[in-house]
Amino acid sequence: MTEIEPIALRELTTLRTGAAPHRMLDATTTPELISALREVWQEGGEWFVLGGGSNLFVGDEPFDGTVIRILTTGIEELPSPHEGRIRLRVQAGHSWDDLVAYAVERGYAGIEAMSGIPGTVGAAPVQNVGAYGQEIQETLVEVELIDEHADDAVVVPAAELGLGFRTSVLKHHYGEVQERRAVILSVTLDLAVTGDGGRVVRGDQLRRALGLEDYEPVPLSWVRARILETRAMKGMLLDEADPDTRSAGSFFQNAIVSEAVARTLPAECPRWKVEPDLDAMTVIPLDDYYGLSPRAERPASMVKVSAAWLIENSGIRKGFKLPRSRAGISTKHALAVTNRGGATAAEVSELARFVQSRVHAEYGLLLQPEPVLVGVEL
Ligand SMILES: Cc1cc2nc3c(=O)[nH]c(=O)nc-3n(C[C@H](O)[C@H](O)[C@H](O)COP(=O)(O)OP(=O)(O)OC[C@H]3O[C@@H](n4cnc5c(N)ncnc54)[C@H](O)[C@@H]3O)c2cc1C
């Protein structure tokens, strides 16, 4: 672990806001990371870990605590208990896209549709990253993590991480307390060994994104190249030269509403049914059991509605900017709030609040931010 001269967070985050924090530590190995965390926990005070900074919106006031940069790298191949599959154990600071490239080059399938997502492997389960219908939860076996104030790291199966749409128990959602405060040290994925020969692509969303009309087999490397091209066209692939990529990706989450609320929205607003989580088992204490099982309660169905559609149809076009502001909506994607050069967190917040208020006034829904907010309020 090395204590370094704190670097302004606007240089380490893709939305490019935030001053230098009070203190900054670099950890390049897992033992260093653990000892940095232990030291910070012992001292008390605020802290957070930083990966690629691509899902963070940091305020203008210096963070009064310690930022630990996770710079650990490495991929280890392990046997899978399943025939025709392989396991990859990857260190938390490894670049996510380098991992996808590694898997695709070797003909390991399962994460190729997530090519080009910025950031680190350790942060990927935090919001259950996904793109074009593929999510990390489909291939994630377990993570090694250390809980705040715990002595040792533990291995936690994916099923215990509460993975859902852009969420997990580890994510610090805006306005809510994090359910489990822990740092991921490594991630284990289970991938299919398919080689780079042709393979039929499953999933309508992915096939549509790839422009595949029927079920012709295509190589993994072709899928990756096509996804990278598509992302670049939408400003969703980091590119120094493209100001539309100075963002935190999608700034707003698609809204999840009841069927009754969804019916109040115009029919053209794209929507997807969200399958409710059914309780697998109801435990009835023996003393309360009279020979009749209660009827299982079916949770209400929910509907996911397109935040991009709501934004554009509340009058905010791609490229929209408030007068004299250096923050703007991406010219390619209505969901991305971008930094057009030197925008402060205050300017970004002003634009985000304006979008929220327009959508609320038009459709009665309050859009929630997707990135983790540090020292900023919307
Ligand atoms: C252009 C662009 C496109 C994007 N496209 C997508 C997309 O298609 N799909 C998608 O899901 N996301 C997308 N994102 C969002 C982002 O890339 C992902 O959420 C990514 O996983 C964040 O990784 P990071 O290392 O940059 O995390 P950071 O921004 O550094 O951190 C995000 C949060 O995770 C915490 N964290 C980081 N590392 C760890 C760790 N090891 N253990 C515990 N907590 C940790 C941080 O403290 C912080 O709270 C996009 C972002 C951009 C800028």
TrEMBL record:
Instruction: List localization entries.
Output: Cytoplasm
Q: What is the top EC class of this enzyme, as a single word?
A: oxidoreductase
Spell out the InterPro entries in the cross-references.
FAD-bd_PCMH (IPR016166), FAD-bd_PCMH-like_sf (IPR036318), FAD-bd_PCMH_sub1 (IPR016167), FAD-bd_PCMH_sub2 (IPR016169), MurB (IPR003170), MurB_C (IPR011601), MurB_C_sf (IPR036635), Oxid_FAD_bind_N (IPR006094)
Q: What is its main location?
A: cytoplasm
Needed cofactors, names only, are:
FAD
The answer to keyword Flavoprotein applying to this record is yes
Q: Start and end of every FAD-binding PCMH-type domain?
A: 17-267
- Tell me which Pfam families the record gives: FAD_binding_4 (PF01565), MurB_C (PF02873)
This protein's UniProt keywords: Cell cycle, Cell division, Cell shape, Cell wall biogenesis/degradation, Cytoplasm, FAD, Flavoprotein, NADP, Oxidoreductase, Peptidoglycan synthesis
Q: What is its EC number?
A: 1.3.1.98
Report the domain of life of the source organism. Answer: Bacteria
Q: Which reaction does it catalyse?
A: UDP-N-acetyl-alpha-D-muramate + NADP(+) = UDP-N-acetyl-3-O-(1-carboxyvinyl)-alpha-D-glucosamine + NADPH + H(+)
Q: Which GO terms describe its biological process?
A: cell division; cell wall organization; peptidoglycan biosynthetic process; regulation of cell shape
> In what pathway does it function?
Cell wall biogenesis; peptidoglycan biosynthesis
Residue ranges of the TM segments: none
In the record, what terms sit under GO molecular function?
FAD binding; UDP-N-acetylmuramate dehydrogenase activity
Query: Where do the catalytic residues lie?
Result: R166, S250, E370
State the GO CC annotations. Answer: cytosol
Identify the NCBIfam families for this entry.
PRK13903.1 (NF010478)
Give the UniProt family note.
Belongs to the MurB family.
> What is the stated purpose of this protein?
Cell wall formation.
Protein name per the record: UDP-N-acetylenolpyruvoylglucosamine reductase
Q: Which organism is it from?
A: Microbacterium esteraromaticum
